[in-house]
Specification:
Nuclear Transport Factor 2, Chain: A; 2 domains; six-stranded mixed beta sheet; 6 helices
Length: 321
């Protein structure tokens, strides 16, 4: 199984604004003097980032002099692209934080030039400044009904997980990675799903949906979809990164590239259900994915994701760790 690990940041001394962001070096036990940017502190950074974005004023959030910004895999200058077109926040947003890494992973509705967009973003906070901003922006048509279902802060996301139902940081990463392995191996037995697992992609409910117009596939459970092998059209999942792990709320957030080769003649783990790609999946392209998993008692209970079409095997522009 391909499981990546997030490198910890170098420690900085002193009391830092917004609660500080000092992080210990690998293997160094924290002392009573360690100052960490905790969940509330990182949440403030997330809110200030969104405020700066929609007001087109980067100075409203502390940015490092060498802050790096990408939008849809392209490195851009602060002030360009979404920074120049965002008008307001939409109705919904989801924010996940990781005090150990200084990481933030968020989803938010955005209004650009009067039109709705879906924003997924990863931020890194170091030494009381944002040093990394990685975004995916899905630009939608006016009155797109999926905007009302995107980034909804459903109670399940903040539902406390009792200590006896929590797993370790490493286990959260492994469970998220097993989800990607279950897709590429067309297997339903290696990914631990809760029976009530519900997945939303770009605001659409992809499992356990009950609307009359929904396809039979969307009525399935997460487990049933994997067991049916239908997702084998994703021929590889590359550039997997797990940079924001919310241990308290048991949420693992990932960024990866879903590659669709368009031909399943030589997929690594075979095609046991004889699935045939159709439509757009019959030609090469990839998806840039931002995806978060709520895990309870070691099982995936809720999933939120943004899915953007990009060139086949496009690199997202960030290192593996």
């Amino acid at each position: 199984m391909s499981t990546l690990r997030t490198a910890r940041n170098v420690a900085v001394l002193g009391v830092l604004a917004l609660g500080g962001t000092a992080l210990a070096q690998p293997g160094t036990p924290p002392s009573e003097y360690r100052v960490v940017c905790g969940k509330e502190c990182l949440g403030q950074f997330a809110e200030r980032f969104l405020d700066a974005l929609v007001n087109r004023q980067p100075s409203r959030v502390p940015l490092a002099p060498n802050v790096r910004y990408t939008e849809n895999g392209v490195e851009l200058a602060i002030g360009d692209a979404l920074w120049a077109t965002a008008d307001a926040l939409g109705e919904n947003k989801l924010i996940f934080t990781d005090p150990e890494s200084g990481g933030i992973h968020l989803y938010a509705g955005i209004v650009e030039a009067g039109l709705p967009s879906m924003l997924a973003a990863r931020l890194k906070v170091e030494n009381r400044q944002i040093t990394e901003i990685e975004t995916s922006v899905l630009r939608r048509e006016a009155n797109d009904p999926s905007m009302a279902r995107f980034a909804v802060d459903r109670p399940i996301w903040s539902q406390p997980v009792p200590p006896e139902q929590r797993v370790s940081r490493e286990a959260l990463i492994d469970i998220a990675d097993s989800y990607f392995e279950g897709i590429t191996q067309a297997r339903g037995d290696i990914t631990p799903f809760d029976d009530a697992c519900t997945r939303f992609e770009n605001g659409g409910q992809m499992t356990l949906a009950t609307e009359v117009t929904i396809s039979p596939v969307q009525r399935m459970t997460c487990q049933e979809q994997f067991e049916a092998g239908m997702l084998i059209i994703v021929t590889s999942i590359s550039n997997r990164r797990y940079l924001v792990i919310d241990e308290e709320n048991q949420v693992a957030s990932a960024i990866a590239t879903f590659d669709h080769r368009g031909n399943l003649d030589a997929v690594p783990f075979g095609n046991p259900n004889n699935v045939s790609p159709a439509g757009q999946f019959s030609r090469p392209f990839s998806f840039l994915i931002f995806e978060s998993f709520k895990i309870i008692d070691g099982k995936i209970r809720q999933i939120e994701a943004t899915v953007m079409s990009v060139p086949y095997k496009m690199h997202p522009g960030w290192p593996a760790d």
